[in-house]
């Protein structure tokens, strides 16, 4: 219920963001022209607002459901045994699949609407030069992840990952220059506290003993992840009329390239000796499929909503996962989970109620 | 900082509450006349607002500090060994001491200002008939407390006691008819979640296994405690110009009477065989002194602020206690404590920011 309200409110901002971004990048588009662009994107007519609202709702729900099922697949695969495949090859396949799906969507669009300036695949150096940056940031973050485990254990890392919420909020404010009200900031701090509380268990206090290098790495990783997210939003929203599938195609092409580098750096021996697909199972294939679809949903949320909606969506997904796990895996929900979920729910309400007028 | 802001905002309501209460009780006082009454109370002149604000600040800080030191004395006394004295005799002495202190304050006031209608001790049946009710409610709650331990252990009871926060808010709304904004309600739910989170430990999940009778008793106790608090506020604010020390005197006289009954019911044998003061130590005396002063501070907060300020004050006191205990008793603060404290801080901010305009 409350979640729906957020999306509702956020919609009113779509135009402002677009115009903010235009002015940020020093383009000459006026608010009126970006409104026209959005109207075109929405299929034209007076129902732009409603079309935007619907699209935002659909992509946000899709992201929430895909993220929940992702976590459930991970639990399932852990129950089935240890990962036997190379994670880097799986990541490469995820990028490849996303690329293929974007091309598939584009061929359908070309057939129906013909090739236009906004949906043609060819690009300029000026447009494409920023697309490798998010992929490079994620690669760097993933490499750091191997080193942080020298300082923090895996459950501790799960807790520190909640710093992403704060870093996304701060970078969203600084880079996209979009304002959150004080009440929304309060909600954002609560989202971070609530998610962490929901994950508390008897070993969580160990994370407080993290050494200084561990904290620094955790903060750097949170900043890298937040920056990659916010930068992706900036790239995708820079030209609102550009077809999202073209933008995705170029993002994922660079994702494939950087993940190919990761295979060489991290798993060259394993792949050379045991083959590219060693250790793949049915569940691995499901996980790759899920990751690809979630990745596309994230891009869509960036295009039609924003990073804040993305963070709320994935946080709510985390709670949904736990509830579904009660039925699937006989999980027991802790008191901390109930408290954390309540705090997250209040946070969602505050994000909506605290909307700047 | 943020806490100061709340008190600031709440002050604007003092007049409304008084007039609400008058209309609630069917009195013919107008808003103007209760304003005059408050001005008289504040020493007259144009600085009523500021005087009220100062007094509210002082009593709230006093309550916070006294409540923190109360909890510290309890920890100290537990370290020193088990309670050896009869709790009912100590409660009786607390009421007697409060009575004596109220009389002492009154004799000074009579000397300085002379005896007036508002500060005379003599009362009417109509005024005094409601004063036994809070004492009776507390007595009933304290008796129930002995039975709830059949269903819940002591740490579980500490967690369930946070239901008081919600019950106070709900009864405050229903009985005093004073409105909280939606943001303030969100803050109140967060206060309850934050306090509970701060108290989480590895055994907290046991509270989820509480049986239905245990839950019912916990909820009844929360309602009794909330009702006693809200009813006390209603009594004290019913006649704003009445001297608080006279009101306290009558409250505490009935407190003494009901606690005398409790001694007979619960500790008659122990007192008859071992004497009234058996097992008293220096720390017992300190605890009695502290309870008496905290009790008076609670009355003052009811008079010059309200139950909501009281709940926030005692919740912040709980967090202060934990921080002070780090230095005094080498306590370790848990991650849950940090998360809970952050949620409580945000809640205090929301109570202030969500002020109805």
Automatic annotation (TrEMBL), chains A, B:
The chain crosses the membrane at residues 57-76, 183-200, 212-236, 248-265, 277-299, 311-329. Keywords: Membrane, Transmembrane, Transmembrane helix. The keyword Transmembrane applies. GO terms for cellular component: Golgi membrane. It is a multi-pass membrane protein. One of its GO terms (molecular function) is pyrimidine nucleotide-sugar transmembrane transporter activity. It is found in: Membrane. Belongs to the nucleotide-sugar transporter family. CMP-Sialate:CMP antiporter (TC 2.A.7.12) subfamily. This is CMP-sialic acid transporter 4.
